Amino acid sequence: MSSENISISPAIAAGERASAPAKSLSFLEGVAMIVGTNIGAGVLSIAYASSKAGYLPLLFWLVLVGCLTTITMLYVAESTLRTRAHLQLSGLARRYVGGFGSWLMFASVCVNSVGALTAYMTGSGKLLQSLLGISPALGSLLFFIPAALVLYLGLKAIGRGEKFISIGMVVMIATLVAATLLKETTQMRNLLDGDWRFMVPVFSVVVFCFSAQYIVPEMARGFADKPAQLPKAIIVGMAITFVLLAAVPLSVIALSGLDNISDVATISWGQALGQWAFFSANIFALCAMLTSYWGLGGSFLTNIFDKFRLGDDEQPFRRFSVLLLVVVPPFALAYSGLVSFVNALYFAGVFSGVILSIMPMLILRGARASGDQQPLWQCSWITHPILQVSIVLLYMGGAVYAIASLLGYLPAGW
Question: Which residues cross the membrane (predicted)?
Fold first, then answer.
């Protein structure tokens, strides 16, 4: 082992907790983690969330937000490559921004993860009720058990699960989209319907759909032996995500029209195509929720370890205890009656979007000033100040609109 690998970094000297080295991820597993985390409840809700605005405003946001999110993910990627210790987002914020920034980032992780996991509990119950005729609570419990088990097993299990299920999801989506395009009742002119005045609320749900920023540090642990592949995996994963996010609402809206979309879109999609598609679409939806649950839940768990410096996150009893904090509250919240499926995603996207528009820039600036090592890859023109200011203004504007619509001053989107 070289002296470079055994030298003590400033982070460790300052007493920061470095996560235990993770098992190596393959490039495909890394891409699958991005796709699987992004293709969750968001892909099921954006068709319904755009039911007033229409498909073209949705497509506009998918392109813009997808590009901007990829840029901020690459900021985080360079920051992790400049940092020898394996820190999560809250740890990177503590190191390079300070205590207040660390708490803001941790709050963003908490809000986004709890909102997402709550939506997955609600959505999985509805889907299994429609598939099996059981109660929603029992359906959520059946979803909960394998979801929590893989989270407990750790990063390698998550990566492998994401890989196999993500490949299956791509096949299912391709089949369903092809069947939609070939069906005689499909009306492509439905894609031109809608009202651009309602486009702004769609923004925050689309922000949630691109929620894989949180798993970049965890991916960096898995790519520690081949760090140059990290940004490549991010770009490929986000490109695939865009194609899938655009294809699902295109098919649902073309087939059903804007007035006949359920909040979990695959229910109405499958019903319109026939019995085989009903089961296929809803099995896809369950897989989408499961992979995103693993990605966001795993990130939430490791951020708790990192923020509170709990030591090795692979110690069985300690991991199980923290896992309970991650998975039990969303299950309870899902059946509290306090929040709906789409609203859980909407407000999670609003809050986390603002934090994730600002914090990666500050983290990268700090990493470039005081990082441990020269990275094998770094951002170039995407760090231009004009671009960064534009990102912040866009996300702040979306948050202001969300608050105003909540208070009744501006129209909601659905």
Answer: 27-49, 55-76, 96-121, 127-152, 164-182, 198-216, 236-256, 276-296, 317-338, 344-364, 385-410
| Structure token pair of residue 142 | 């059946």
The CA distance from 67 to 65, in Å, is 5
Range of the domain at 156: 22-406
- The CATH number assigned to the domain holding 83 equals 1.20.1740.10
DSSP assignment of 46-103 equals: HHHHTTTT-HHHHHHHHHHHHHHHHHHHHHHHHHHHT-SS---HHHHHHHHT-HHHHH
Give Cα 10 distance to the centre of its chain: 31
Phi-psi region of 98 (alpha: psi -120 to 50; beta: other; left: phi over 0): left
Secondary element (H or E) of residue 161: helix 155-182
- Each residue's pLDDT tens digit, 274-332: 888 888 888 888 888 888 888 889 889 998 998 898 888 888 999 999 999 999 998 88
- Selection from 175, 207, 161 nearest residue 46 by Cα: 207
Per-residue b or e along 289-300, where b marks 16 or more CB atoms closer than 10 Å to that residue's CB: bbbbbbbbbbbb
- CA torsion 184-51-169-149 (nearest 10°) is -150
pTM beyond 0.85: no
- Give me the pLDDT at residue 11, please: 43
The reply to whether 10 falls in a domain is: no
Is 7 contained in some domain?
A: no
Is the pLDDT at 338 greater than 80, yes or no?
no
Asked whether residue 186 is domain-assigned, the answer is yes
Q: What CA–CA distance (Å, rounded) separates 175 from 223?
A: 32
Q: Go through the chain and tell me how many residues it has.
A: 414
- Neighbour count for residue 328 (Cβ, 10 Å): 13
| 321 domain-assigned | yes
pLDDT digits (tens, 9 = 90+) for 228-249: 899 999 999 999 999 999 998 9
> What own/partner pairs with CB < 8 Å and gap ≥ 24 does 385-393 have?
387/71, 388/361, 391/68, 391/71, 391/72, 391/357, 391/361, 392/357, 392/358, 392/361
Tokens 């909040």, residue located? 263
Overall number of domains in the chain: 1
Please state, in angstroms and as integers, the Cα–Cα distance from residue 380 to each residue in 7, 74, 172, 225, 383, following that order: 29, 10, 37, 23, 6
Residue 109 DSSP SS3: helix
